[in-house]
Every structure is written in C-alpha cells, then in structure tokens.
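STRUCTURE:
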C-alpha cells in the first residue's frame, strides 16, 4: 500500500466501523420520555447550561423555573447568537443538525423546532443510530431512580440494541439513606453491616442484575476515594459488590474523580473534578485479580498513571474520555497516550450521550480524532517496513470501537 492508500484505508475503516457505545445515559425507547431527543433537549444539555450561565445575569432560581423551551431559547441566544458556538458542546449541536441535513446558517430556532416536531420517535432512534454508526448502546440504569425503577418493575419488551449497566452510586456512597430505601423495598437490612445485611444487599444486587440483564455494574467515585480503608463504602464494595460481580461474572466499572455539587445551584451542571489517588485503585486491582474492572478517570492528571496501571493489571480495561476530558484536544492526547503505552486492548471512547441525537456528533468527532491518531501509528509501522494489511486494520479498529471491550467482558 502506498502512504496515501494506507491513510485512505484506515480512514475508511474507522468511518464505517459499527460502534458499541459502552456508556451513555440514553434509554431503551420503551422508557418513553426518559429517552431525550430533539433540539430543545440538545440545547438544555447540562454541558451547555454551565456555559450559558457565564453569559447571563439570570438568577439560578429564575432559570430553573423556566420551561424547557424558554431555557433552550436563553441558551441559544447566549451561546449561538451572542457569541460564536465554538466550544465542543456547542459545535456538537451544529454537527448533529448538519448531519440531519438542516441548514444551520439560517440560525432559525423555530424552523429547527418545526423539523424535530415532525419526526416519529421510533424511526428517529434508527436514524440517529445509523447516522452515528452506532450498533449497540449501553444505558446507565439505576434502581434508585424513582422514574426509571417502576418501568423495570412493570417489565417491558426490550429493544435488543439497548443494553443495561447497573449503576450503584447511592449504595456505595450514601449507605444511610440507601439502607432505609432497601428496607422500604422489602430487604431486611439494618444500618450496620451485619452478615444478614450484607447478604440482603447481595440479594438486592442479584435481583436487579437479573431484572435488567445488566452487563456490568458501575459507580462514580469522589477524588478522595481510598482503598484499603476501614469505612462503609469499602466494606460494601468488598463484601457485597465484588463478590456479586464474581458470582455473576460481570465487570465492575469505576469512574473516579468527580466532586459532586461543587455549585449545587447549577443542578446536574454543578459537579466538579479532583485528582484521584491512583494508589487506591492499584491496591484494589491487585487485591482482586478474580474481578474485572473497567475504569475511566475524570482528571487529566490521572491519565498517565491509569495507563501504567493497565500495564500492570490485566483485570483492568480502560475506557473513554469522560465528561471534562471529552474535548478534542484531550481525546487526542489521551488516545495517543493509551495506544503508545497500552496498545490496542483499550476502548478509547464512549459517548456519555444524554440526548439521543448527540451520538451523531460525539461519534463523528471521536472517529475523526481516533482515525487521525491511528493513521499516524500505522504510518510509523509502515516506515519500518511492516505493512499493515487491510484485514489487520479492520481487526484493530473493530477492537477499539467495542470489540476489545466485549472480549474483556467475556
Ligand atoms: O457526563 C455527564 O453527563 C455527567 O453528568 C455524568 O452523568 C457522568 O457521565 C456520570 O456517568 O456520572
Ligand atoms: Zn456518564
């Protein structure tokens, strides 16, 4: 292959690979209104809310009292009309609209609303997934969510494109409140972690894993998470969650580095970040070789040591450029770092989409960056005389966009 042919081959392979999106906040269409889509939801995405507040004097209370349409109007005006929409979250809206064939240069929000109002939800899911090149979507499923829980309890016909991941933050991080809830739901738990309580927590995990057919369990953790350390979180982790994962042969995803509600007035947009203590996670991965861990870390400062950890622990699979690292500059840096230090046994990206249409821009932008890094890597190989074949390129690309994750999950 000539250099130009190699580049074209890699770009084409990346552009056409069908993606498994391993972490989103999207829902199976059977969840109805929980599956967000359309221009107003795109505009009130909490990433944009945080940016819009920088340009307005409106009080937090006033903003939250507005309807979704009014909030979207305000954000559109602040971020798209009064300034050029160059942040990654703003640009994403335009990439998505453009992919739908909409004329963004008119800056005509009412016309955009009209177009979305004409879409049929069922077909729209397929259209977005096709435009994004996404074949499977992993949800984030919480039994602690009062809107979501009853849907699972009632039961519904699953859309096989949507897979479940059991999210357990309140179990590990707010045991006092959670123990009361479990009690109300019929589990015989006390606030102290007696053997009986632990076995009931395991029953709870077992019930929900089965109800959801969860493919992995997951938790986000504050930067000061420490392990080992004698505390409730670690006891629940070691005595209930990890044994449960071993019993059901499921990975456990850790997402360290989020400092929740740094500015509570911003709601979902009010969370912050901190550098995590990697030593804690090294201890965890070392102590439980029979458990498999997925990990993504929020702080840029942790990315290098996370790669080193992946070199030490084969029970660790690193994934995604999470939230504040999900910007082109850092995606490129982190992907390059991971490929150079770890190789192909990683999952460079997930979308974290909260609004269905976002998968289009998230994956178009991701593929552009990951493709660029891969072209460079294969060109470096070719320069040594090692010519990557088309089949090898395809194999590698499939691994990066979901294949390696699936192999890791078994
Ligand atoms: O990225 C986000 O949308 C955040 O609000 C979080 O939901 C984060 O991704 C998480 O899973 O905790
Ligand atoms: Zn998320």
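SEQUENCE:
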């Amino acid at each position: 292959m000539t250099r130009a042919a190699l580049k074209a081959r890699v770009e084409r392979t990346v552009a056409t690979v069908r993606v498994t999106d391993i972490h989103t906040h999207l829902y199976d269409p059977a969840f109805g209104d929980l599956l967000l889509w359309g221009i107003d939801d795109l505009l009130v995405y909490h990433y944009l809310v945080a940016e819009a507040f920088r340009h307005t004097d409106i009080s937090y209370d006033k903003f939250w009292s507005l309807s979704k349409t009014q909030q979207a109007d305000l954000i559109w005006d602040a971020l798209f009309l009064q300034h050029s929409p160059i942040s990654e979250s703003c640009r994403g809206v335009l990439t998505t609209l453009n992919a739908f064939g909409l004329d963004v240069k008119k800056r005509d929000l009412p016309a955009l609303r009209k177009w979305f109002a004409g879409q049929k939800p069922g077909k729209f899911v397929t259209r977005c997934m096709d435009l994004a090149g996404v074949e499977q979507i992993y949800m984030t499923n919480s039994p602690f969510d009062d809107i979501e829980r009853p849907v699972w309890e009632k039961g519904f016909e699953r859309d096989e494109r949507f897979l479940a991941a059991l999210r357990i933050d309140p179990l590990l991080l707010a045991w006092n409140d959670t123990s009361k809830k479990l009690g109300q739901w019929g589990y015989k738990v006390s606030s102290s972690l007696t053997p009986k309580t632990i076995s009931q927590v395991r029953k709870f995990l077992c019930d929900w894993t089965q109800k959801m057919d969860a493919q992995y369990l997951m938790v986000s953790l504050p930067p000061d998470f420490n392990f080992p350390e004698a505390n409730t979180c670690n006891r629940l982790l070691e005595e209930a969650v990890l044994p449960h994962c071993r019993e059901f042969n499921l990975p456990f995803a850790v997402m360290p580095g989020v400092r929740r509600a740094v500015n509570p007035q911003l709601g979902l947009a009010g969370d912050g970040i901190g550098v995590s203590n990697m030593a804690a996670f090294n201890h965890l991965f070392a102590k439980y070789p029979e458990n498999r861990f997925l990990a993504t870390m929020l702080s840029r400062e942790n990315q290098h040591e996370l790669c080193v950890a992946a070199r030490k622990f084969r029970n660790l699979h690193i994934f995604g450029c999470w939230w504040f690292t999900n910007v082109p500059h850092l995606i490129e840096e982190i992907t390059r770092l991971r490929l150079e230090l770890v190789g192909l046994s990683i999952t460079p990206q997930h979308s974290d989409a909260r609004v269905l249409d976002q998968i289009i821009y998230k994956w178009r932008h991701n593929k552009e960056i990951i493709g660029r890094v891969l072209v460079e890597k294969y060109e470096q190989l070719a320069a040594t005389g090692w010519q990557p074949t088309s089949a090898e390129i395809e194999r590698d690309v499939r691994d990066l966009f979901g294949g390696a994750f699936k192999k890791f999950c078994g």
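REMARK: The chain has a mean pLDDT of 98.
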